[in-house]
Every structure is written in structure tokens, then in C-alpha cells.
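quick one: beta-D-galactopyranose bound model?
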Amino acid sequence: MKIRRTTPLLLLLCCLFPVTGSAEQATRWFNDKDLTLTGAYYYPEHWDESQWERDFKQMSELGFEFTHFAEFAWAQLEPEEGVYDFDWLDHAVALADKYGLKVVMCTSTATPPVWLSRKYPEILIRLEDGTVLDHGARQHASFASPLYRELSYKMIEKLAEHYGNDSRVIGWQLDNEPDVQFDYNPAAEAGFRAFLREKYHNDIHALNDAWGTAFWSELYHTFDEITLPKLRQMFMNHHQILDYRCFAALQTTSFLDEQYRVIRKHAKDQWIITNFIPDYEHGHIGQTKELDFQCYTRYMVYGDNEGIGRRGYRVGNPLRIAWANDFFHPFQGTYGVMELQPGQVNWGGINPQPLPGAVRLWLWSVFAGGSDFTCTYRYRQPLYGTEQYHYGIVGTDGVTVTPGGREFEQFMKEIALLCKEYAPRETKPADYLARRTAILFNHENAWSIQRQKQNSTWNTQRHIEKYYRTLKSFGAPVDFIYEDKDFNEYPVMIAPAYQLADKELTDRWISYVQQGGNLVLTCRTGQKDRYGRLFEAPFGSLINELTGNRLDFFDLLLPNDPGVVLMDGKRYPWNTWGEILIPGKESEVWATYTEEFYEGKPAITTRRLGKGTITYVGVDSQDGSLERDLLIKLYNKLNIPVMDLPYGITLEYRNGFGIVMNYSDQPYTFNLPAGAKVLIGDTTIPTAGVLVFKI
Ligand code: GAL
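yep, here:
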């Protein structure tokens, strides 16, 4: 480990950008003294009732603090319409309580019972090709169906009446991994029209204008003529698709919000969340109005080698959990993880065993980002059904603890040790806080770019990752934020490929910089309005006042014949996107193109504006090394101390603990900060190993 530069300016940075955050909101539900809770999903309905007690006893002896019930049990909870049976669940809750296990109750709306689908087939999802989904799997009911919602709320209300005031139940999970549905059910179409009427104030001309329907004779005369856009149809109007994606995401978030309100009427002291898959670009995560905080599910080993080295597929992508932490945490200042695999999964192309130690490494990775709990899917390996080969904490006999189960046990014991040493949640070193950085994110940018990439090798996620990966190598705490956050909390903010913008946002960026913020904007930013249309102005000029530049033109190259950008004597290949900038008088040029008819022209500029700086990166490099060196240069210039952690090594702080995790295929030796004391592990950290020290 190497601190690139230390500076007495740290204190100044901390005063200019005080860490406020919203951690207080979450403390209502959790205590610092617990550090984190650990739980396991259990499906009583899958097992003989005579085994429940044995299972809860062992679950508790292993160290678990909570379990999770009724996630897919609507058929058992409401065997006939309007006839409810909670006796079996009451028994399971009582037995869990006997062994000190709290319960997370679920709403089971991912699995309607057969009577519902047969009696009301109009609730079934219809795919774009006309296929109507059927009973026999899960997630086949349409969130856009008012009838499905009504039937769901009836069942949920009964459950909430029954358990909402029960101190054995700590919280609620809504649905299961509710994703954005691209559903062509007639109810969705009617809903889309209603959404558009409201958005465009019943004015079809406003819609025609927003969607540019003068093009190719796409004009509409009434809202009733509008259908759901066929995503597979070539050249389908992409402004319409932007609106459709907003509508589709809203179906998911409003369904969750309504479920929340039904439960909240009866549940005063229980938190209510759902378990999102971290598909950031789908646009539903964090967008509900009601959820108490955001939770995710994460699977790390499923056959793809996104890890480091030959066995990297057994450990997983080093940034996968970190990114989810940094995305979910900023919404309400905490998060939980609902599903972390305890071993092999069943749904990958190839489903290998995780490397011994990997399960524990993931648990620490979740904890390091500031979570309040982690839960595992699942306690027992199922003997029948779609997920037979899925590992549990115990194996097929129901009692033998799997290697991953043992790693959970070890983690829970280690957390119990740390509970004797903890400090308040936000106890973190000044140099770590000084380098905290926001990445401004809006999924609509990714949607818009996706339909008009201009270069098939462009990948929005990968573009963002080039910056994110560098920040994690700095040992920086990163927050992914939406525009509703206060930019002024962050010394540095990066808005990568922020294509859709307006004057209001540009003005906010200007005032952020003028007040001392350091903003990095990257190529494609501000080129379109919020409907995805180009401005009737010089191309890309929305941000000229901010960057001080003008944009001459942009070029795109073939991947096998890249161009080269030069910065400080070093050469960086690029091909997906390169903007040729005309710098203003105050702009300092940091990188130039070396070839073609724009040889010597600027690719990256920076300048001071008020008390801050604005850096514009007009190019996307092939391997991310330009983005890395650029950020090193910038942070050095700003006197922000950064580390130089190799890819695969992550460092975070919480509760007065430093946590270093090794996802690489080599041992890594970490230089402890002065005065730090090792609590867990050793300063030489093996592959999949963890070091925890006290500051
Ligand atoms: C998750 C899902 C769980 C279970 C698990 C298997 O995506 O939420 O219900 O199916 O996958 O790994």
C-alpha cells in the first residue's frame, strides 16, 4: 500500500465537504452494537413439520439471528380465494422464536396460487411475441394488472393484520427480486396510455413533439392510437421507448409502494424492504417512494470468469459486491443483503464450487460497505423443484453443514468478536473521507445510448466501470447518486456519459463547481434533452459555459485499428468515442489525439471555475488506463491523498474497523496505518482472505 500524497489540507477538505449523509434514518431499525445481523431463508412448506424444530435449533446454534418465511407460499396462505390459513406459519414463527430467531415475513406476490391464474387469466404476463406465461413457475403475474394488485393487497392485508404487531417479526420483504417487466398484457397497454396522458397533459401535440413523430410519418392523433412499443421491431421510435421504459419501471415501483402502504397500516415497528437484483440500468432500484431502505441479492460464482486469474471464476468479480454496496447505500444510508449464495448455484451455464474462503470473503465485502444485515439463500438444499442442485447452509440430509455453511458460521463468530471492539458507524479515517467521490447516475442515459450507440463497441456500464475501478484502487468511498442528492457533500463528482441533461442540471453543476466542487464530465454528456432529442444549437453546446470548451466533432474508430491519445508522454488506445474539443482560453489541455486529421487536437481539458474545477474527458479509452491516470493526475492536483491498491484488493472502513479483502490470485501484503491493531487475519492476506484491523 502506498499513500500517494498526504497533506494538511485534509482537515480543510473535511470542513468544506462535511460528511452528513442519511445514516441517521436507518438507525431507527438497527443498533451499532449488533454491527450486522445474519440470517437464512427457510421454507417451512417444503419440509415435514416434525423437522422444523430441529432445523431452527441448528440454525440458531450456528449463529444465525433471523430467518425468512413465506416468500413463495401464497398457495399455502390462501388455499382458496378468501380462505386464509396462517396456522402452519404461526407454528413456524413460534418455533423460530423458541430458538431466538427473528423472522422476516414475505408477501409471496411472485407466486400466485393456481386458483388465481385459472379464475383470472387476464393477470398473466404477455410477452412481446404474444406468449402468455402460465402457472407452474414464478413471476408470471402482471404488475400492471389492477386486478392482480387488488388480489395481492387483500392477501397482504390479512398477513399484515396477523403479523404486523408481532415483535417476533423484524421486517417484511415485498415480492421476490421484483424486476422491470416488459409486459404486453392489455392492462399494461391501457396503463401506458394513462401514463402518457398524464405526462403530456392530455395534449397529443406535446407527445408528437417529444417523440419526434413528424419523422417517418409516425404522427398520432389520439392517445388511443398508441400501443406499447415493439422493442424487437427494427428502428422503433426510441423516444417512445424511453417513455415506455419509465412506465415499465414505474409499474414495479408503484406495486411495491402500494404493498408497503398496506403493510405499514398494521406494522409500526417492522422495516419493509424488497430484494432487488442489482441491475442498476433497469431503473427501478431506489425509485420507490416508500421502502425503508434498499436491499439486494448477489450471486458471485456461476461459471463466468469475471474474477482474477485461472481460478478467478471461483471467487468472482472483485467489484461486484462493492458496486452494489456503493449503489444501494446512498439512498437511505444503509442496506441489507437478502441473498448471498452459500455454495454452488443451479442456474449458471456451469455451476462450480466457490474457492474455499470465498463465501466468507463475500460476507466481509457486504459488511465492509456499511450493511446492517446479510441473509443467505438458503438454509436447506431443496430435494425437489427447479433448484435441486442449489446448495444450502446444510445439505440434502438437512443436517450436514456445507463448507459454505461453515464459512457463514465463522463469519458470525468473527462478528461476535468485533462487537466487543466497535466504535460508532461513521468512525473512519480522515484521509479515507477526504477522497470520497460521487458518481452521478441516471439509468435513462444508458437506455438512451443503448438505442443509438453509434459504435457497437460502446458499453455504458464498462465506461462507468473504468472510473469506478480506479476510485476503488484509490481506496475511496464511492457513492452512486441520483440528481436528487446534494452534490455539495462530495469533494469530487464524476458524471460519466451523462447524455440526457437540461439547463437546470447544467446550472446545478456550475454552482457545485463555483462553490468548490470538482466535477468530471465524460464524453457524450449533455448532448440530448430529457426526451432524447438533440438541441437546436451547436452540437453538445449545453455544457460549453461549464467546460469552457466547444465541441468540434466526434469520431468513432474500428476496434482493431484504434487511435491513440497522448497524455504526459504516455499513449492510450481508444476507439469507441472520441470528441475533438476546441478549448477556451482558460482551459488547460491534458491530452491530445495523435493521429488523423485532428492530430494534436484536445481530448481532455480542465479549468478552474469559481472555487472548484471542471475536467472534461472527451474520449473513452480501450482499457481504462487513461481514465485511471487522469484521475490520479486530478486527485494529486487537488491534494487529495489516494492509495494505489492493485485490482482485486479492496479497502473500506466502518465502525472504527478497516477491512481489506483480497479477490486476487496472489497474496497481498498490506501496510497497516500507524497505531492500527490487527483483529482478524494477518497483514499478508491470501487469496480470498480478509484482514480486519482497528484504527
Ligand atoms: C435468486 C432468487 C431466489 C432463488 C435464487 C437461486 O435470484 O431470488 O428465489 O431462485 O436466485 O440462486
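Residues 1-9 have pLDDT under 50 and may be disordered.
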